[in-house]
Amino acid sequence: MTANIPAALTQLAEGGNHESLSPYLTGGGALFILLLLLWITTRFNRDR
């Protein structure tokens, strides 16, 4: 089991692209979440 750890770390360090991860989907999801957080922040930060 411990012999697989260096190989796994090497694969993680090299990037290990996975076919199910679309960069457009990941980036779009991150953008949506950040815009949602910005909208929520501006709703709660109104001066009254």
From TrEMBL:
Keywords of the record, alphabetical order, are: Membrane, Transmembrane, Transmembrane helix
TM region positions? 21-40
- The protein here is known as LPXTG cell wall anchor domain-containing protein
